[in-house]
Design a protein that fits this description.
The structure is a homodimer. Chain A is of the alpha+beta class and about 450 residues long. Chain A has 2 domains: about 280 residues, 3-Layer(aba) Sandwich (Aminopeptidase), CATH 3.40.630; about 120 residues, Alpha-Beta Plaits. Chain A is built from 14 helices and 18 strands. In chain A, strands 1-2-6-3-7-17 form a 6-stranded mixed sheet. In chain A, strands 11-13-9-14 form a 4-stranded antiparallel sheet, with helices on one face. A 3-stranded antiparallel sheet of chain A has the order 4-5-18. The relative contact order of chain A is 0.19. Strand 11 of chain A pairs antiparallel with strand 11 of chain B, so a sheet runs across the interface.
Chain lengths: ~450, ~450
């Protein structure tokens, strides 16, 4: 085992250079013009996996391809089998003018590497590749079989993954799925995330006149769709941060005393969070701490507003339409289909007759919860302790990784969420970065993990 | 006077051919590549005015030149003096693919002439030139002195006109300004527009976190600026279409019974307006008809909304900021500075402490009102009746023509708005046209107008 850790230590510089190559692909899954870049990125990853010594292949889907990379199997192997899930697609880099260096030209400053996709998720899945490389290149036997599944549609809802899992159910049958796509509060608080929030996404468009109208000639006699939208949205959240949609909180389990104690261990002070986010004061649902609000409570969040004229100066129009992009975060026991229904019903009910309402449904996913007392969770906590040299903590996270529900439903496997991101990594924001110590310690954690998970005790 | 009208009748075919020459210049003031075309168009107009018998010259400005054309003055003339204002610049013709014939190749079909600038404003100002030609070429003495001021920057905000008026204050001192740049509801409803709305423009931006945040990681513990904006805007207009800002309506004079009767003469039915705008149902301030709402009542109009992600699909962020572009239409007696203050004060008051408010002020202009009982207005109504052979109507229009305020402030002259455009003339749209009957009757109206305005009674 020491030879594996030594190999990792020795080759860090090369690993970082290789990660830079990986990050140079503008693999933005949401933007059709990048289709070829996703193809190229996936092909690069297959090639890299083969070079390490894995059996790798590109699997086409109805959308962007999936990369499969497996350790070579002894015939009739009865070793445990673990799957490592990650994604090579990234969020759109916009707004570009806020980046200090181009998003797809990796820049290293101090112990950070800046690029779109560095922490979410290329840097994190690449750490696992490097751990496996260390085993294979040093001839150290792996105590388990491993399969990487690295997809290209995580940032747009993983539309084709479930079907792929079903079709490859036998090949991918495994004892657990390891996912490094979450975070830890600091390098001194390596974390196992045992719960995630779910999500529903949708778009509301209010249609008014058949075209933008001259606001001088017609303004005052016709509904302004942007004002109708503001008035509609304003009725959905109150001044105490509570969502006012009837039935929205019906299935939310109250937080237990154990969980509220875990939350209290979270090392970030409110003032630190305010500083991190750049706000004067935090704001959220009354009666809950900020840590609880952002990981264990559901939300109704406006992700974008679009209407009328957006250029310089003014244009005197009544816009033809106004649109809001919305996501709701969900917590365990809230069913996405039911929440989508209560939300849409309410919006339909409060929408004024002066505009025509159009709701376009987006993706949805249930929240996730695994017991922190399970054998796999305990093994993961030991691997974290060995790699980071300190006591790991148990986290609930506010984000959503919808596919962990598919792993459970289709592969009957629990997911171990061992995130390597830091709170200031700017995932989904300009100047996204990944910490190189997290990268290195993540590789060591991965190396330990296969030993810990494979222990027969 | 009959000889003047006979001359006009006799030469219509030539006038139309000359108008075609005027329309062939692509004098698009917004597009720098047309700078020379504006110069050429202005030079053509100077030449044409001289040919008619006017003293004409080209006056350079910091932008496009202004054409001045004056009737020859007897030394020490004590005749009344009227100014005719118009513009030779036109809107951009784009989108070109929607034109049925090229925008700068005039096409006559039925009683309409199709070309960019035909109704707005070349055809309308050319009608006045032709009326004056009829006086001069028939040797009929004009009862007044006339000065044409035809500018080249109306479609881009008349940036250099106010300075020009100030510099030429003595030369341009006059008893009234005649402007044919508005419209009439139909050729059977020749109109005097006796009021226009004013305007204030501004932008509200609510700043939240220092960058777009991952809505999974942080959503719920931090204010969403788009939601804060929706909640703020929703407090500004109620379900009855009334602006709720304290003091907003303070200076608005109630509509008199006389005015409401005038409005009732407006020939467009609600159903026709709904069809024209493409809405199921009109909506506006309760207690007023649509005609009143869009011309005689102030508004708070959202012209544009911008926040967060606007591309395809979804992006799970809490936006860093949210912005609304706003214009308020004002009515006579509402002072732009005061309304700007009450609006900004109210927004500042209701803005929640969870976001930082930024207000950027834009342009402002007072509303315009001349008494329909004034001597000049009555003279204009008589001229309309003589030329069109039917009872003219009194209009209030909802748009703003800021330069009429400059005529008032700088030249101390009221403006008579005698528009020759029709509602389906497609001003600012593809397939702009001008009705040749309006052209001919507009010439007759102009010929009558100088007699009526100059009557000493």
């Amino acid at each position: 085992m020491q030879v594996v850790l030594d190999y990792l230590k020795k080759h860090q510089a090369r690993f970082v250079a290789e990660l830079c190559d990986y990050l140079r692909f503008p693999s933005v899954s949401a933007q059709p013009q990048h289709k070829k870049d996703l193809q190229a990125c996936a092909a690069w990853l297959v090639n890299h996996a083969r070079h390490i010594g894995l059996d790798a292949r590109l699997c086409p889907t109805a959308g962007h391809p999936i990369v499969i990379a497996k350790t070579k199997r002894a015939k009739g192997s009865r070793k445990p089998h673990f799957m490592i899930y990650g994604h090579y697609d990234v969020q759109p880099p916009e707004p570009l003018d806020l980046w200090k260096s181009p998003p797809f030209t990796p820049r290293i400053q101090g112990r950070s590497i800046y690029a779109r996709g560095s922490t979410d998720n290329k840097g994190q899945n690449f750490a696992h590749f490097k751990a496996v490389e260390a085993y294979l290149k040093t001839g150290t036997p792996l105590p388990c079989d491993l399969t990487f599944v690295i997809e290209g549609e995580e940032e747009v809802g993983s539309a084709n993954l479930a079907k792929f899992l079903k079709t490859h159910r036998r090949e991918l049958a495994c004892d657990a799925v390891v996912v490094s796509d979450t975070g830890m509060p600091s390098p001194k608080h390596p974390s196992l995330t045992y719960s995630l929030r779910g999500i529903i996404a949708f778009e509301i468009t209010l249609h008014g006149p058949s075209r933008d109208l001259h606001s001088g000639g017609f303004g005052g006699a016709v509904e302004n769709p942007a004002m109708a939208l503001a008035r509609l949205l304003a009725q959905i959240r109150d001044a105490n941060g509570r969502v006012t949609i009837p039935g929205f909180y019906d299935d939310v389990a109250p937080l237990s005393a154990f969980e509220r104690r875990q939350f209290a261990h979270f090392p970030m002070k409110d003032r630190d969070l305010e500083k991190l986010l750049g706000v004067e004061k935090l704001f959220g649902e009354r009666g809950f701490t900020p840590t609880e609000q952002r990981s264990a409570r559901p939300t109704f969040e406006i992700n974008g507003l679009t209407s009328g004229y957006q250029g310089h100066g003014s244009k005197t129009i009544v816009p033809a339409w106004a649109r809001a992009k919305i996501t709701c975060r969900l917590v365990p026991r809230q069913r996405p289909a039911r929440i989508r229904k209560v939300v849409c019903d309410y919006i339909t009910k409060i929408c004024p007759p002066t505009v025509r309402l159009e709701i376009e449904a987006g993706h949805g996913a249930e929240a996730h919860l695994v017991s922190p007392q399970s054998r796999e969770a305990q093994a993961a906590l030991r691997a974290l302790r060995s790699a980071f040299g300190c006591q790991p903590i148990l986290l609930r996270e506010g984000g959503s990784i919808p596919i962990v529900n598919d792993f459970k439903k289709i592969l009957h496997a629990d997911s171990l969420l061992l995130g390597l991101g830091l709170p200031d990594d700017n995932a989904h924001s300009p100047n996204e970065k990944f910490n190189l110590d997290c990268f290195a310690k993540g590789q060591a954690m991965s190396a330990h993990l296969w030993q810990e998970l494979s222990r027969r005790s």
